[in-house]
Each structure stands twice: as structure tokens, then as C-alpha cells.
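ok trying again, last paste got cut off:
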Amino acid sequence: MTKLKLIFVLLIFTFITACSNGPGPLKGTWKMNGIIPLTVTYRDDEEETMGLISKVTYKQEGDDVLVTYIDGLAKGTTMRITITGSNTAVTGMGKLTRIK
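nice, full thing came through this time. structure:
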């Protein structure tokens, strides 16, 4: 019975972690140097760019964070951001450097 309880607790923990909408290692404000230089802020359930706040979900896969837009101009699209260091990341649009 103890093994069954342990498996149950681990399954619940995995489910809760997988459903988290937090940005994980993306949390904070980043400067993007690339095609269009931007400042981007990642918060729980949202992303802010150029004063526009979009509702998003986050999913972490190894060093990648998948940001899926659930409203706004990019609704329905997903951006892959690869964490390359504690304060650096890359996307298809350019390099991100954490500033806050």
C-alpha cells in the first residue's frame, strides 16, 4: 500500500507541475536584440511587449520554454525560447538578455 501512495503522490505532483502557467526561467524582463529590438516581460499567465499584455501559457521542455498565446495579435501561436544561461536565451527572432 505504501508504494501505491507514493505513486499517487508523484502523479499528482507531476500533474500540478505540468499545469503550471508560470514562466519558470523566463520570469522577469528581457531585452531582445535581433530583427526588432524589444523589451519583453514574462509574468505568470502573461507576457508584456511594447505596452501590450497578452495572456499566455508556458510549458518547459528541457532548456526550452514554449510560450503559447491565448489572446492578442499572436493568438494561437507558440514561440520556442531556448535558455542558454542564467540571463540569456535565444528565439527565432533574436537573442534575449535578462535586464531585471
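cool. The two ends are 48 Å apart (CA to CA). The mean pLDDT is 82.
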